[in-house]
Design brief:
Elements: H1 12-28, H2 49-69, E1 75-76, E2 83-84, H3 92-103, H4 107-117, E3 131-132, H5 133-151, H6 156-168, E4 181-182, E5 197-198, H7 199-203, H8 206-216, H9 220-234, E6 248-249, E7 267-268, H10 275-288, H11 294-310, E8 311-313, E9 325-327, E10 329-331, E11 340-342, E12 344-346, H12 351-362, H13 366-384, E13 394-397, H14 410-417, E14 437-442, H15 450-462, H16 465-482, H17 500-504, H18 523-535, E15 547-549, E16 555-557
Antiparallel strand pairs: 1-2, 3-4, 5-6, 7-10, 8-9, 10-11, 12-13, 13-14, 15-16
The structure holds 1-deoxymannojirimycin.
Residues 138, 275-276, 348, 448-449, 523, 527, 551-552 line the site of 1-deoxymannojirimycin.
Length: 565
Amino acid sequence: MSWSTTPQLRWLRPLLALFAVFLLLQILMPRSTYTQIQHNFNGRYLAQPERQNAVKREFLHAWTGYQDHAWMADGLLPLSGGRKQQFCGWSATLVDALDTLIIMDLNDEFQDALNATLTIDFLESIEGCEVNLFESTIRYLGGLMAAYELSNDARVLPKLIELGDMLHTAFHTSNGLPCTHCKLLEKDLDIKPTEDAILADVGSIYLEFARLSQITGDDKYIETVDHVSQVFAQVQNDSSIPGLWPEIISPAAIGGDRTDFARKSTRFALGALSDSAYEYLVKTHLLMGKTRDVYESMWKRASREIKRFLLFRAYIPNANEKDVIFPGIASRTFGDSEAMLETRTEHLACFAGGMFAMASRIFGDPEDFYIGEAITNGCVWAYQNSPTGIMPETFTLLPCTNTTQCEWSDSCWQDQSNRPEHCMNGNCEQFKFPPGFLQVSDASYKLRPEAIESVFIMWRMTGDEYWREVGWTMFESIIEHTRSAFGHAALLSTMEIYDRDAYEKGLMVRKVLARQMDDMESFWFAETLKYFYLLFSDPDLISLDDWVLNTEAHPFRLTESVRGF
Ligand code: DMJ
């Protein structure tokens, strides 16, 4: 008699059968390598309350400036204490900062800000204001929606609908594509789709309007999103680099000669003008990929061409020690087989590090993780090697000619750097920039978030403390140079204090502060300081497994049944 037929052990049989089924399923079920976006921290991370508090203190310094000097204006002027109107006067800074106030546990400040927000009339604006659809969608709609998601305050919902409906009228055109800059509040206005539009202005509306439908149950917003995304999918191969959309597109072409949509320009990039049009393919798939496959297919096609045409390995000191990649700008005229790569890169393009890293998990392509990491390394390099410790807005690097080896030679770089096309105002006498930076065409820093955004994503995805360390140094440099009487100020130049002699003696010129400009964009509150804060927080706070952040860092909750990962 075997043990399984022993009467005393017969009760074991159903259990064994269950176990066998379980084992069989384990063998037969296709296994996904990735089950989540965030690293499995399991409580194993260092709490960094001092650093978090330091970020919060800086936030409060600027917030107090805004409260005292520019309350309910679109922005504060951080040097003069003045106020500015930038986006129709609906208090852009106030709305953009709401969710950061919640995340930082600034409850009294949040209640004051929310009460003020509820008095904004989105159906009135400053005289004759042209609504910037992109900025209003990512800052106002995104900001209000995240405040609603995080506070669950029912009073926000009617405001959200008022604003959503007003912005939605931008799509009330003959072909359902938007007018990106129109006086939407003017009565009886015949709204026409824009002739020449910035790619990101049209291609970055999916996330906010799709989530608005999920929240309200009103499908009209998602129908608009579906239509726009279908158009982008249809024209994806019409441009001079099939798979990519150029920096300028023509919404007005749809309904006429469709191919003109993607033929207004032959320049392609990941920075200004284009950035979030690619970011939203990944993020919108995350938000609703179980119900739509268009974002995944667009991303897979586009990312292949991004890797082929836009990314380059840079010739910088120690390039062999760490993989460093930068996004550049590609051009190709119709009919040409060759594309030209301009190795000019931008702070704005640093978001691509986080985008590729997240895409690797979402679409299961491990190679993309290394691309994301290498892009983030590039941005960190630019911070670490600028004299202020802050990456400039736009600069040119030499590309490595060999894809595997990239041996640095100071003299070779100096020769290149001294070529007339790289000299500033024809003056080749001095070395203007630290080794690696060939030309810096815009040395300013506008308080932008993209580099710390990618560093934050790398930390949340790997749990590697390295990212928090480099992030902290970035924070210290930014605060050192940008802190002003009323807030934090954009910088005229991250480079002007460069001194070759000091550099060669191993001294970074840190004592001299960069010149400040009287400007502080609302994304300083919405994005830059939020990412710094979240880098040092408990990784469960706004976990990337539960939330998707829009391009202005406003978190939207992921719904289990529809989320695409
Ligand atoms: C922000 O408004 C958003 O991140 C946008 O996608 C790009 N520009 C700014 C920040 O630099």
